[in-house]
Amino acid sequence: MNRLKKGMCVCWILALAVLGQIVAPVGQLAAADNSLLRQLSDEIASVSEKAKPAVVSIITTTIRVQRSYDPFEQFDQFFSPGFRRYYRSHPPVERRQRQTGLGSGFLIDSQGTILTNNHVVKGTDELEVVLADGRTFKADVVGSDPETEVAVIKIAGKDLPYLELGDSDTVKVGNLVLAIGSPQGLPQTVTSGIVSALNRSSVGITNFADFIQTDAAVNPGSSGGPLLDADGKAIGINTAIYTTSGGSQGLSFAVPINRARHVAEALK
Asked: Do 229 and 180 contact (CB within 8 A), yes or no?
C-alpha cells in the first residue's frame, strides 16, 4: 500500500511538472499577445494625433434668391390703369435664403492647399474652413473635377500642418486604414478598418472606376476627409458610402491618392 501511495505521488508530481511546462508558455503567449495589442493601440493613437491637426472641417453656404409673387398680375383686367401703374412701379421683394452644408478636407502643404471632394464645394457661394485648433479661414475654390470627385481649395495661411501623401498603388486588401472627418458635424472623428477591396467601379458615384473600398465608418460630413495608412500618410479621399439607412454600413469608398494628386496638380 505504501508503495502504491508513493507511486501515485510520483505520478502527480510528474503530471504537475508537465502541466507547468504547458501552462507557462500559454501564459507567456498571452502576455506577448497583450503586448502586441497595446503596441498596436499605441501606434493607432500616435498616427491619429499626428494626422488630426491637418484635417479640416469645411462649412459651405449657398445663397438662394427668391422673388415675391405679384398677387395682382393675374387680375390685371379688374384694376384701373392707375392702380396697375402703382403696384408695377414697385419692384418685387427679394428674399435671400442661406443654406449651409458640412464636409471635410485635409491640408497637403503648409501654405493652405486643401484636398476635398467636388460635391462638397459644388455650387457653393461661400466657403469657411475650420482647423483642428479652432482657427477659421475663408476659402476659395482653386478648381474641381466632377469626373473624379476631386476638388482643391485654398486658404490664406502659412506654416500650417499638413499630411504627407502616400502611394495608393502599393495598397493591399487587408491593410489597416484610418478615416478622419466631421461626421454629423463632429469634427476630428477617427474611425478604423481595413481595405476591403480595390478598383471598385459601378458604385453609382461617377464614371471613375478604381475606388478603394473600406469598412472604416464614414458618415455624412466625412466626405473629403483623408483615408490614412498605418504610417499616417494619406492614401485616399473618403468620398461616398453605400447605405440603405443613411448611415455607415461598412461600405465606404475613397478616391486613390495617386489619382487625386494628379488631378490636383492639373487643377492648380
From this structure: no
For 91, other C-beta atoms within 10 Å of its C-beta total 8
C-alpha grid cell, residue 131: 482647423
> For residue 185, which of 220, 139, 216 has the smallest C-alpha distance?
220
Rounded-to-integer distance, Cα 203 and Cα 194, Å: 19
pLDDT digits (tens, 9 = 90+) for 36-57: 888 888 888 999 999 999 999 9
> Is residue 196 a contact partner of residue 215, using CB atoms and an 8 Å limit?
yes
- 13: cell is 508530481
Helices (runs of H) and strands (runs of E) counted in the chain = 4, 12
CA gap 92, 214 in Å, rounded: 52
Whether domain 55-155 has CATH 2.40.10.10: the reply is yes
Q: CB of 209 within 8 A of CB of 197?
A: no
Q: Which CATH class is domain 164-267?
A: mainly beta
Show Cβ contacts of residue 191 under 8 Å, excluding neighbours closer than 6 positions: 178, 179, 180, 216, 217, 218
Please, where in the chain does CATH 2.40.10.10 lie? 55-155, 164-267
Considering the entire predicted model, what is its pTM?
0.76
Amino acid present at 217: A
